[in-house]
Specification:
The protein has 416 residues and is mainly beta. It has helices spanning 294-303, 322-332, 341-346; strands at residues 12-14, 33-39, 42-47, 55-58, 61-67, 70-75, 78-83, 91-94, 97-103, 106-111, 114-119, 127-130, 133-139, 142-147, 150-155, 163-166, 169-175, 178-183, 186-191, 199-202, 205-211, 214-219, 222-227, 235-238, 241-247, 250-255, 258-263, 271-275, 278-284, 315-316, 319-320, 351-353, 363-366, 378-384, 387-390, 399-402, 408-413. The strands form nine sheets. Strands 32-37-33-34-35-36 form a six-stranded antiparallel β-sheet. A five-stranded antiparallel β-sheet has the order 1-29-2-3-4, with no helix packed on it. The chain is globular, with a radius of gyration of 21 Å.
Amino acid sequence: MKKIKTLILSTIVAGIIAAVPQVSAKADVNNINRVAVIENGVAYVKEGDLGAQWHQVASGVQQISLSGNRIGVVENGVAYVKEGDIGAEWHQLASGVQQLVLEGNRIGVIENGTAYVKEGSLAGDWHQLASGVQQISLSGNRVGVIEGGTAYAKEGDLSADWHQLASGVQQLVLEGNRVGVVENGVAYVKEGSFGAEWHQLASGVQQISLSGNRVGVIESGTAYAKEGDLSADWHQLGSGVKQIVLSGNRVGVLEYTTAYVKEGSFGAGWSSQASGVSQIALFSEQEQTPTKSKGQAIVDEARKYIGVPYVSGGTNPSGFDCSGLVQYVYNKLGISVLRTSQDQYFDSNAISVDRSNLQPGDLVFYNWGEGNKNGPGHVAIYSGNGYIIEAPRPNLKVQEVPMYSTGYVGAKRVIH
């Protein structure tokens, strides 16, 4: 089965590396930059600078995936994931696995042709999404699969409906509000809703990669990348390339059997990482230029807590109520907000926003719960495309769902 090359996940086939020292490493969850390779079935990971030491993490490995402080491997068909330090313990998740994908707090696998996703803790329940699947891709609250050569995607809750995107598809990549496919050797990208128009970018393509506002392709063995608008010019990166991977401000290629990584602009110099490589993976939280908006950073932070249970009065990742989630997420971005939904709504530092002008990161208020007389009783974070992230009510978990049609009071922006 052809593995998906999702960039933020950055799991693409590549690697060996010379003997590397094994040392312990601690993960800074607020600034994680990792590179992974596979050598003769042995997986190694480094963290921080490109010149950092390698750490052996597993053997008998067919695939490795990185996302945030999580590392996942498929070892002899069994999927394992660890989180936190590189030296943390492995958790066995599934067997008979053909593909493993990590993205934020979601994990996706293809097990004997069936796609499953879990969200939240590693011990969370699996949700069966589709059968007869060749590839799975995850990004934020979006899930995509290729089933019988046809690409489908959904967003929001895992039980949401599928949208058919394209047929004759060899590769599907989701990244933020962008979707990329390789269809009969031609690379297409759309941005915004699933119903948006496709933009044809290149032909003779073996692979496409997306990260932020960057796009990378391999065309007849030559790697190209562009950033910004989809109509931007291509930059040639290298020839003899088998794989390209983008993550944050880093670009990785597998040129013949040597893995190279550069960071910063496309014109920056390459750093040779390993030779004889069979897979390379990247995860970088350092952003490319232009940097993403503060509002999008709030949404990205909020998505990390999807699946956390609702707890009345909760203000931390062990459990949130609606305003506790908002306060915690905003504080993580260095923005101070008040504690309750009523106080957040009437905060003199917040400006009112018309529903037609909502931007990611805005606060959306509803006339529910205990606040009907003194102000809105429910608050959520607007995540774009008509969706919100919320801690809804007891017995439910933090979720990303379409905006509600009833009880809407108004919206506020506290990031001006």
